[in-house]
Each structure stands twice: as C-alpha cells, then as structure tokens.
C-alpha cells in the first residue's frame, strides 16, 4: 500500500514524534511518503529512510498554493492519506472540493490537540474521512462538533540506546525526578518546582525541553532561586533522544494543567516512562487521567496541588517496592496496549478496509 502522511506543522513535538514512529514501522511493508515542514522532523524521518517532500518556504500565499498542488498530486498517487495536524487537516479539507470523493473516503485525520482552528469547516468538509483521536479526553473535545471519532492511542517503541555514562556528572545514586516538557505555561512547571521544596529526600529534578516562552522561563528560574533549589534543579535543552535520561531517572512526572491551551491530549512521556519500567506521576487532567490507573501503574494527583504532588513523589522516592510495582505494571500495560506493532496494525487495518470499500 502507498501511504501519504501530511505532517506540515511548523513546530516539533509529540505529534511529530508519534508520526516518526508510525512511519518507520509502516514503511517496513508499505511505501510511505511524508509531506513535512519542520526541519527537525524532516531530519528524523530522513534518518529512518522515509521518503520526504518538503513544504515550500516562500511567500505565504504562493507557498500555500504550491503546497496544495503538491499534496493534490501525491494524494492522487497514493492509496491512502493520514493528516497528522490541524494544518494538515485544513489543507485536506480545502482539497476535498477538488479531489475525487473516493480519495477523501480513504483518508484518516488525527486530532492531536485542543486548540484546533476552523473545526466546523474541517469536520464538515471531511465528513467522509475517518476521524481519530489518541485518548478519550480528545474524544470529548471532538464530540462537541457532533463527530464520533475512533480512539487509536499513540504508540511507543521498546528499542533504545544503552545508557551513556557521560549524561551528567551528578552521582547516579542520587534519585532523579525527570520531567520532559517544553518550557511553556501549560506545562505547570512551577507546581513541580514548588513541590520539590517540600520533598525531604535528597534528589535532583531534570526538566528537559525547548524554551518556547522566555518570560515563563524567567519566572520559573526565579522560583528556583527563591526556594533555594538552584543545586537541585537542572534545565536541559531540547534533545530528540532522551532515552539516556529516562534510564537514569527514578520517576517520571507530568504536570501539564488545563490552562493556557492545555492539558495533555495524550501524555507521551507517560508511556515512554513505562517503556523503561519507571513509575509515573501526573495531575489528574487531560489524557494522563485516562492512561494511568491510580496506585496501580502510576499516581494521579489533584491538578495544581503542590502538597499532593510532593507526597506522591516522596512516597515513590522512599518506597522502592512501591516504585518498582508501579513501573513494572506500567511496562506491562504499555507492552500490551501501546506497542507500536499493535497501533500500526490498527491504523493499517482501517486504511486497508476503507481502500477496499472505495476502489
């Protein structure tokens, strides 16, 4: 099967990482092409040997027209199309007026965030497409537009590089709280930093992610200084492969909140943590509250509660048996429900069946 992915958002995040995993595995038995804009995304796909078509970087109107022509031609050459972002869905919606109806019926549209624009138009124009979401949290969002989507979770791989000994100079015996998150207000990092001040166990906090809000970054750095945590908090620049940090960590935490464009639609860092048999802690909102079974494979705490978050982290750091139990249960859950082989087969099955129905 020839499959076209539309992944032409300007930024790079969880949606793009999810597509990279899917594209690599689908390409084992299918011809996969990805229409892409972000340079990091492009380079990661090229590393996997995926055929990439770059979006035009010229003047805005000319660029859009050229991109639409390119996408139209690719859709006509492929058996199925998967739109991965809001922008991709918008382009596909525009092209639906020119494409044969059978081509639109052979498309899958993933809704991966809560901030989509032009939803009424997109869902109307793509009423014959298969609409998919990664979690019940996004399903509730899409239901507002009278759309009944399929829930297909994001995938996780279980193959990672070995631990490098030069990741950090800190004593590896010191417990490490890991928070992979871009520096943005909806990530709720101030609550995590404040909770660290309440934790009695000697530990380090690693916050890994791109700075997208300089003002917020200054604010949380001031919080670190104010709470006298400068020796315990480390900010690490974005890196596309943080497997070493997962390996060296004691617990993974997600503090995304329901403000400023949040919460998480899924919670990729949670299943990534599980793949390393690590315990996970998250606020009970968005996608994570549907991923985690409280006190079984992770811990859910009241949103924005600094005290509850500190207590949850303290217990994991203090009780190794409890920590190991959470991590192992999470690992087994990820292996059974979020393994990339399972998710890939589910998506390919949908594409194949709709292709057969609409020859």
From TrEMBL:
Keywords: Transferase. It comes from the Bacteria. It holds the Pfam family Glycos_transf_1. Coiled coil: none annotated. GO terms for biological process: carbohydrate derivative metabolic process. Transmembrane segments: none annotated. The keyword DNA damage does not apply. One of its GO terms (molecular function) is glycosyltransferase activity. Residues 170-332 form the Glycosyl transferase family domain. The keyword Cell membrane does not apply. Gene3D superfamilies: Glycogen Phosphorylase B (3.40.50.2000). PANTHER family: GLYCOSYLTRANSFERASE. This is Glycosyl transferase. It comes from Escherichia coli.
């Amino acid at each position: 099967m020839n499959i076209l992915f539309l992944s032409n958002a300007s930024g790079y995040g969880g949606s793009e990482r999810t597509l990279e995993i899917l594209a690599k595995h689908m390409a084992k038995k299918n011809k996969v092409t990805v229409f892409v804009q972000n340079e990091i995304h492009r380079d990661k796909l090229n590393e996997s040997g995926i055929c990439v078509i770059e979006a035009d970087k010229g003047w805005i109107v000319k660029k859009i027209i050229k991109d639409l022509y390119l996408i139209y031609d690719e859709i006509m050459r492929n058996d199925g199309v998967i739109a991965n972002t809001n922008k991709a869905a918008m382009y596909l919606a525009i092209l639906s007026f020119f494409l044969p109806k059978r081509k639109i019926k052979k498309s899958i549209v993933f809704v991966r965030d809560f901030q989509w624009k032009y939803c009424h138009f997109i869902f109307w124009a793509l009423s014959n497409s298969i609409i998919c979401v990664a979690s019940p949290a996004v399903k509730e969002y899409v239901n507002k537009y009278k759309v009944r989507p399929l829930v297909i979770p994001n995938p996780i791989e279980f193959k990672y590089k070995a631990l490098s000994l030069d990741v950090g100079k800190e004593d590896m015996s010191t417990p490490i709280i890991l928070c992979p998150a871009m520096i943005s207000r909806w990530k709720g990092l101030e609550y995590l930093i404040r909770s660290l001040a309440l934790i009695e166990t000697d530990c380090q906090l690693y916050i890994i992610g791109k700075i997208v809000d300089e003002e917020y970054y200054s604010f949380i750095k001031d919080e670190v200084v104010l709470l006298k945590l400068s020796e315990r908090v480390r900010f690490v620049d974005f890196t596309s492969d943080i497997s070493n940090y997962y390996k060296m960590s004691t617990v993974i935490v997600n503090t995304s909140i329901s403000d400023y464009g949040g919460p998480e639609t899924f919670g990729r860092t949670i299943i990534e943590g599980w793949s390393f048999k690590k315990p996970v802690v998250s606020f009970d909102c968005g996608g994570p509250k549907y991923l985690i079974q409280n006190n079984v494979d992770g811990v859910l705490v009241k949103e924005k509660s600094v005290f509850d978050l500190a207590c949850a982290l303290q217990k994991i750091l203090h009780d190794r048996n409890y920590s190991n139990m959470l991590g192992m249960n999470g690992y087994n859950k990820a292996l059974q429900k979020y393994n990339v082989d399972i998710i890939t087969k589910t998506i390919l099955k949908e594409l194949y069946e709709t292709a057969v129905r609409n020859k």
